[in-house]
Amino acid sequence: MVTDVIKANELHKVDPVFGQQSFDNHEQVVFCNDKDTGLKAIIGIHNSVLGPALGGTRMWDYANEWEALNDVLRLSRGMTYKSAITGLNLGGGKAVIIGDAKTQKTPELMRKFGEFVNGLGGKYITAEDVGMTTADMDTVREVTPYVTGISESKGGLGNPSPITAYGVFMGMKAAAKYKFGSDVLEGKTIFVQGIGNVGEALVGHLVKEGANVTISDISQERLEEVRAKYGVTIYSGNDIYSEEMDIYAPCALGATINDDTVNKIKAKIIAGAANNQLAVEQVHGKILFDRDIVWAPDFLINAGGIINVYGELEGYDRKEITRKTENIYNTTLEILKNAKTNKVTTNTAAMNIAQARIDARKEENSK
Asked: In what residue span(s) does the Glutamate/phenylalanine/leucine/valine/L-tryptophan dehydrogenase C-terminal domain sit (predicted)?
């Protein structure tokens, strides 16, 4: 899973860390290693101007350590802008654990990882991501208070996936309002790529609204399960990007909008839950802009999850969390209109708004 223009096997040609394009002035990168548990993890802290860096932990069987480093850097950077544009007093961080979550994850490994998180003294707060569960966060909580997204029985708000999906749904409806003049998704042809916890919950919202939903996933078992539950169509072709559709919703891993796919896409809107959907933001965002394809910035519309875990830290009730997540609709519309007015990509419009908030806080802090 290479998620940047710099391929993992080429990274050795530049400075190992600081020379990477994805490094982007990270404040801190922590390498965690424990022989006894087999833990190999990397924590990236991109920016803490607005508050402690918060971001989930992903466990993935990366092809090599360069790939893992590149992923954590891009993901933690994305968290900075996600929190900033959502109005949260949080910085951006992320962690990756190298390994197969199905066969190599143990309670001992998770506790050891928690000890490394604890050693950062609250500068980084972790949560769940790909390959992790709420139960894993409960295990981490045994050794550090700097974790959120824990189970309700432990005093938390549980799995953030449903609220993440709701935020994506709100962002998608806003994009439809902008593009089609109505946010009603009934009758729209929508392809959802990736039906994990968030993807499935999104499918539920779309089906309830009357959309024509087609699903795609690497797991045939999941496809059959979701089809049986929601009555949707399983994609049977071999090039989803070339299919006629109203909305493409990438909800798996990132960089699906890349050199190989960006000119094939026939969707009028791209709005999904995956992080880092644009392989190269400036390049592929511009191509979508030139092709009049509306891209709802992923770090905005998938922010429901971080709103949920932030709410856990701040003591919000579910009503307040839902209200803040629903506001993704308004922010998405604002960004899409801003991009049109200023003749810039939606990614640039969103980044400018987020960066302005960070710069303003930095200036306040320097006084």
From this structure: 158-366
Q: How many other CB atoms are found less than 10 A from the CB of residue 195?
A: 26
Tell me which of 82, 94, 105, 188 is the catalytic residue: 94
Strand order in the sheet with 247-250: 233-234, 212-216, 189-193, 247-250, 269-270, 294-295
- Helix spans in the chain (H): 65-86, 107-119, 134-141, 161-180, 197-209, 220-230, 281-290, 298-301, 304-314, 318-326, 328-342, 346-366
Residues 101 and 73 in one domain: yes
Is the pTM value of this prediction over 0.70?
A: yes
Catalytic annotation present for 13: no
Tens-digit pLDDT profile for residues 124-167: 999 999 899 999 999 999 999 999 999 999 888 888 899 999 99
Evaluate whether residue 318 is within a structural domain.
no
Residue 92 annotated as part of some ligand binding site: no
Domain identity same for 117 and 190? no
56 is in an annotated binding site: no
pLDDT tens figures, 188-217: 999 999 999 999 999 999 999 999 999 999
